[in-house]
Design brief:
- The chain is mainly alpha-helical.
- It is built from four helices and two strands; from the N terminus they run H-H-E-E-H-H.
- It has a single domain, classed as Multidrug-efflux Transporter Regulator, Chain: A, Domain 2.
- The longest helix is centred in the C-terminal third of the chain and has 40 residues.
């Protein structure tokens, strides 16, 4: 997972289930209009919308916003570059999961071959 350096200076994320846009703004040191813009630019960022189109962010959203903030403000990525960086990390997670499943399948097949040979 990407760990931006200055995120250590941000306040800790409270143990709540949902956060308003104002709370997330303070937790991530990003203005609310920037958060709304990032929702359009980063498909991973999808806060829950309730009555009156009010946004409620979950803990993983706050973590994602901190990652985006780190990529843009601290590491100097453009919006497009940050989007690619985040999608690459998602693809790597999926690839790792597929690798693990493939290895488990190979192991099962080898165990079946060993059973056949030992008979």
């Amino acid at each position: 997972m990407l760990e931006p350096t200055n995120n250590n200076e941000l306040p800790p994320i409270p143990g709540k289930r949902y956060f308003t846009i104002g709370e997330v703004s303070e937790l991530c040191n990003v203005k609310p209009h920037v958060l709304r813009y990032w929702e359009q630019e980063f498909p991973q960022l999808k806060p829950v919308k309730r009555r009156g189109n009010r946004r409620y962010y979950q803990r993983q959203d706050v973590i994602m916003i901190r990652q985006i903030r780190g990529l843009l403000y601290e590491q100097g990525y453009t919006i497009g570059g940050a989007r690619l960086q985040l999608s690459d990390s998602d693809e790597n997670k999926d690839a790792h999961k597929n690798d693990k499943e493939t290895l488990q399948d190979i192991r099962r097949e080898l165990e079946e071959v060993m059973d056949i040979l030992s008979r």
